[in-house]
Amino acid sequence: MKNYLDLAPKYLSGHKNKTRLTVLSVVMAVALVVGIFSMLDALVTFEKAQVLKSEGNYHVLIRNPTQNEIDTIASRIDVENSGILKDLGGGTINEVTCALGYMDGAFAGNLNIVLAEGEAPKNDHEIMLEKWYLDQLALHIGDTVNIALSDGIAADYVISGVINDWGATKAASIPFVFMSKETAEGLSAVTSQYFVLFKEGVNIQHTESVIAAGLNITEDRVGYNEGLLALMLQTKNNRVLTFYLIGAVLFGLVLVTGIVMIYNTFNISVLDRVRQFGLLRCIGASKKQIKRIVRRESLILSLKAIPFGVLAGMLIAFVCSGILKIYNPHLFGDISIFSFSAIGIGAGVLIGLLTVFIASMLPAKKASKVSPVNAVTGSESVKISGRQKQGILTRLFSVEIAMGINNAVSKKRTLILMTSSIAISIILFLGFSVLVNPTFMGMKTDKPYTPDLTLTSDLGMTSELSEKLSQLEGVEVLGHPTEYLIDLQLSDKNDEQTVSKVGAVIDETITLHDKRQMNAEADNAFMTIAVFIYGFVAVIALISILNMLNTMNTSIAARSKYLAMLRAVGMSDKQLNKMVLAQSITYSLTGCILGCVLGVLLQKILLDFLLADWSFPLYQVVGITVICIMTGTLAVMRPLKKIRKTIISEMITSL
Prior knowledge:
By secondary structure, this protein is of the alpha+beta class. The chain has four domains: 1-55 and 233-379, no CATH class; 60-224, no CATH class; 400-446 and 517-655, no CATH class; 453-514. The protein is 61% helix and 13% strand. The chain has 26 helices and 14 strands. It has helices spanning 7-14, 16-54, 67-74, 105-108, 131-137, 167-172, 181-185, 204-215, 226-231, 238-271, 274-282, 287-327, 329-332, 342-368, 372-377, 392-396, 399-410, 412-435, 463-470, 496-505, 516-558, 560-568, 573-609, 618-635, 637-645, 648-653; strands at residues 60-63, 79-93, 96-103, 115-118, 126-130, 144-148, 154-163, 176-179, 191-198, 222-224, 453-456, 475-478, 485-490, 511-514. The strands form two sheets. The protein has a six-stranded mixed β-barrel with strand order 2-3-8-5-7-6. Helix 2 (16-54) runs antiparallel to helix 14 (342-368), helix 2 (16-54) runs antiparallel to helix 21 and helix 18 (412-435) runs antiparallel to helix 21. The longest helix has 43 residues, at 516-558. It is elongated, with a radius of gyration of 34 Å. The model has no long low-confidence stretch (mean pLDDT 79). Keywords: Cell membrane, Membrane, Transmembrane, Transmembrane helix.
């Protein structure tokens, strides 16, 4: 040994079990941070794809623009693409109500107007229709349909192309008819919208304000793609900003959880070595040198643990993304299972380094102040209070259980650290659960009573029709049908044959509204958020349980000499088990109570802040309590088994 700092790696290699437990704690904390942030990065990527699919790829729109406004905005160097959508009013197609419109071909793809077959209308009296309407009437490209405008003028039009279905128009059973530019120019638009997509890196809020001011565009004429702007962090929407604020608080708690996890284990490990520090002081080591030794140990532990923590966090994100992709390929088929967050990895590395350093220095500072004589003799660690004990615990419990509870509550710092570690994890769990709320996220989701098909008629419907529909296999009539409306639900939502059977039962006076696609789009948007957030909660719960098991292992390993002394003076293995179990359960229940109280309070504050309904999360609290008790019980089994197998004299003399 050439330098006193070489003591650091020698101690770590000589106490492999304790080192392994400390390294594991750092690995889990880093994995928690990296895993959560990587999953968040995947969520943002997927949500952006969903927004582009449902809302379109644009940033702002101008309502009823003038030609001068269109020309000025289109000529700007910071505009990537733009296009106008005209609402040409209502009409009829083959005597069925329809909506008429025109869309710039260059921007149609940005609004998910996708040509599935044929060509876009180029000449006068050419149109495009949605696929569902063509299928419903058995029409094909090249067929001629009769379209009557709102003013009563009718003419024949040729179907030149077919576009993908829109959930809203399909549910309303009102086909959208896209007309050519030539036809649209000869008609008066009811309303028009000019969509603008800016180039990457543009400050959209500032640029939009400059354009509006320069062209005297009033605020009521400007619209925003809030979903896309929110993901770009360029929104003015207070609700979205509130969502981000809540997210920042919750992810701040994730970072705090990682810090507490590392500090807790490292504090127990370092304080257990007061005797070693005392020996070093006796042979001339200064307080500064002891701090440097501990700092060197923390650096070694960081270099060992952080890479594994980063890999574990990446593995968590990989597994979660893979499960989603396999479980629901329709919804998550486009998600990349190799999506990792550079910010998450950087945060994990930074948290690991800083926390290990801080966690090692505070106990080392205390140890460096211990008298060398007291540290060597152990008199510093065994203090006898002059205050007379009341013996309340022994009146309520057996001696060994009373000792276990007393051991837990007498060491205030350890109690605070253990309790806070458990409590923060519970607070995170309850806090993230708030986000899985359709009302909170402004989403409509499928309910057990949501209809797949709705039949309407201005002329009324008979009870015989309702009876016929209820007799169809795979069809359920919901609620009490009215004279003008009947709601139906399908046992197999993808069964087109059943839909055809329903269509065969009704006559031309009844309109069939197919709401399946619209319902599915709403469900998919909600399920995306829900699955990812429950993934966050699952990762937090798993790592928190593993951390508690690891911390109890570290705690018991650090107090093995004390436990050996109790065995030496006559405590049986059964009594030892009860004592340690009582100590572990005390930690668990204390953390559980604190976490549930603060977590429920956080839930209520968040939901009140968002003006959403709140009810006491009874099932969550009961489940958390059961898990805490089970974890506290499991945490002591392995270390106690190892202690019972160890010879008492060897355990005492080895420390």
